[in-house]
Amino acid sequence: MTRVTNQTGFTLIELLVALAIMGIVSVMAFGGLRSVITAQSTTDESALRLAELQRGWNIIQRDIEQSINRPIRDEYGDIGPAIIGDKDSGALTITRTGYPNPLKLRRSALMRVSYEIDEGSLYRVHWSAIDGASDEQARDIELITQVEEMEITFLAPDGTWADEWPQARIEANSIGLQPK
User: Quick one: which of 2, 7, 140, 173 is 20 to 30 A from 110 by CA?
Assistant: First the structure.
């Protein structure tokens, strides 16, 4: 007597082959997911860095566009130039206009602004008073991080490029003195 049984199901070998294939597909999917996550984090870091650079350069551009040739007086009353720049130190100091006054206080619309590199960051230092301003009145903002150096060159009125500003003859003329 023969018995016919209709058995359905998978053999052990079929199950092992299916598990092996699923394991390989899972490893490949995890590798792809990991590379997507790594690419996303790199893109996010780059986007944050780009946003920081754009914000910093926009502030610098706005300050330079609003700079004016107005000499200052230091805390001792000595006359100083409106713009000071040095290629070696990478520092730039300017007098600018456009200092907002929403409360309509009795004060100047001028501001003294300086850009300096300190401990790998570019800082914007500003004084609300341009004459007699001291370091105690200075307020600084970190603009851009991971800065190694800043190079500044100036276009002189005679069409030549200078590494520092003011040049001796220009400084004397800008404050109404004759060069020696």
Answer: 173
H/E element, 126: strand 121-127
- Write the pLDDT tens digit of every residue in 77-124: 889 888 888 877 778 999 988 877 778 777 778 888 999 998 999 999
Q: Which two tokens stand for residue 115?
A: 């850009």
What is the spatial distance between Cα 49 and Cα 87, in angstroms, rounded to a whole number? 25
Beta bridge partners of 139: 126
How many CA atoms does the CB half-sphere of 44 hold within 13 Å?
6
User: How many residues in the chain?
Assistant: 180
Residues with Cβ within 8 Å of residue 150, at least 6 apart in sequence: 90, 92, 115, 117, 122
Q: Let me know: does 82 contact 174? Beta carbons within 8 Å.
A: yes
The stretches of the chain forming alpha helices (DSSP H) are: 12-65, 168-174
Specify whether the CB–CB gap between 165 and 85 falls below 8 A: yes
Answer yes or no: pTM beyond 0.85.
no
Question: Is 12 in a helix, a strand, or coil?
Answer: helix
What is the C-alpha separation between 81 and 139, in angstroms, rounded?
Answer: 21
Q: What is the DSSP letter of 19?
A: H
